[in-house]
Amino acid sequence: MASKYDIIIVGSGPGGYVAAIRASQLGKKVAIVEKESLGGICLNWGCIPTKALLKSANVFEYISHAEDYGITVKDAKADFSGMVKRSRGVADGMSKGVQFLMKKNKIDVIDGFGKLKSGKKVEVENDGKKTEYSADNIIIATGGRAKELPNLPIDGKKIIEYRKAMSLEKQPKKMVVVGSGAIGVEFAYFYNAIGTEVTIVEFMDRIVPVEDEEVSKALAKTYKKAGINIMTSSEVTSVDTKGSGCKVTVKTKKGEEKLDCDVVLSAVGVATNLEGIGLEDVGVSTDKGKVLVDDYYKTNVDGVYAIGDIVHGPALAHVASAEGIICVEKIAGENPEPLDYKNIPGCTYCSPEIASVGYTEKQAKEAGYDLKIGKFPFSASGKASAAGAKDGFVKLVFDAKYGELLGAHMIGANVTEMIAEIVAVRKLETTGHELIKTVHPHPTMSEAIMEAAAAAYDEVIHI
Can you tell me the distance from the alpha carbon of 331 to that of 23, in angstroms, rounded to the nearest whole number? Predict the structure, then answer.
């Protein structure tokens, strides 16, 4: 390893490793510091392995309903350990892929825990040995971890977080999921699909509370039909872990309820990894657990930058990657456009999937817009009917005055693959009428976008 670099990046998640590759492309001498596995939480314990588990559940559901497609299958059963093994294999493969990319782009990988030191230096501790490296610029990309509530202490056995939820030794018969954001509803779907009795406890008055209200209602309807118990406007006040299982006390509008389960999954959000990385030592400013940065992710300390979950903005892998690219391009003297945080897509990979971007209907009204709303149900889609996936809809929110697409909200099969069209449409400031006249292939799920736009302007054909 060299001792001096143009850029040192602390953390190799989708923010860190993407920034490292882009910096290398721009001719910079780069090192990346990682205390665990290349790819960070996303590739090893988040985005990728969870999708592998969800795919296993999805395949099992297909097989369980094979008769609906004219196929007879006997004695199908879920192999929980086999699903976990496949998931870990997928994660390992992705991490090795990042290793290859580091070598390909001539990026030095420094194993160990990185800590900022004054004078633009990073101290890396590995197996008790400390080594200092210096750089003209340092990017902190240390990511996040599961948030822990005081009344829900994670013990890794009976009260668990997402990492343990995807690597349990044994499938629980009963599970209580606390929180109904993306992590909560994805694991609720997975475990319910393979036969675990699942209860979701949500503090807000609806599940997936950041989504459009109609999306929340649609997912709740599907989940209840699948046998998932949903408790909204409710709060877990305590968990008794004595004995073989858990006794969960839930405070509801109607009073206190007791739930018995094998394991409690805490899915109440993300906490940032800022402890022990030397921010205080060098004077980097933070606020409420986030590093303060400008539009190009520069901190108040010269030569120190921060990206990803540790800065203000949505804690999403694709956001971290975009921030990393903008950050290193600015360092390299390019003139990148600041990230538009109002045009960031959000995806939830439960079944049916959820994808959204921009204003919800409620937010748009509160912002003072006069609206045109277009909605197209997948029950009217030929492709959805053929696929046996008629649940859900596409909902588009337009500004009535100028035709600007303010937001899009989808729930249904494969909608996470469709949302990028809306992001591009919003980026290009395309109007509703232009979207209607954009010919979509038939039969596809994506036709619902064109039809929803047409519905907003009373031109819809198929409903």
Answer: 9
Element (DSSP H or E) covering residue 135: strand 129-140
- Residue 144 pairs in a beta bridge with 272
pLDDT tens profile 61-83: 999 999 999 999 988 899 999 99
On whether 185 is known to bind a ligand per the annotation, the reply is yes
The dihedral region occupied by 212, where left means phi > 0, alpha psi between -120 and 50, and beta the remainder, is beta
Q: Which residues are catalytic?
A: 442
Break the chain into its structural domains and give their ranges.
4-144+271-332, 159-268, 352-456
> In the prediction, which pLDDT does 43 show?
85
Say if residue 176 carries a ligand binding annotation.
no
The H-assigned helical ranges of 74-155 are: 80-104
Residue 3: half-sphere exposure toward Cβ, Cα within 13 Å: 3
User: pLDDT of 345-379, one tens digit each?
Assistant: 999 999 999 999 999 999 999 999 999 999 999 99
269 annotated to bind ligand: yes
Give CA separation, 251 vs 131, 153, 220, 461, in Å: 51, 17, 20, 48
Per-residue pLDDT, averaged over 9-29, amounts to 97
Structure confidence by residue, pLDDT tens digits, 220-266? 999 999 999 999 999 999 999 998 999 999 999 999 999 999 999 99
Is 309 annotated as belonging to a binding site?
yes
Mean pLDDT of the chain: 96
Distance CA(268)–CA(381), nearest Å, equals 35
Report the share of the chain in percent with pLDDT over 70. 100
Say whether 258 counts as a known binding-site residue: no
- Predicted pLDDT of residue 44: 86
**Class for domain 4-144+271-332, per CATH?**
alpha beta
Using alpha carbons, select from 419, 378, 404 the residue that is nearest to residue 222.
378
Tell me if 449 sits within 8 A of 396, measured CB to CB. Answer: yes
DSSP 8-state code for residue 219: H
Query: What's the pTM?
Result: 0.95
* Contact between 122 and 114 (Cβ < 8 Å): yes
CATH for 159-268 (3.60.21.10, 1.10.10.10, 3.40.718.10, 3.50.50.60): 3.50.50.60
Contact 145, 45 (CB under 8 A): no
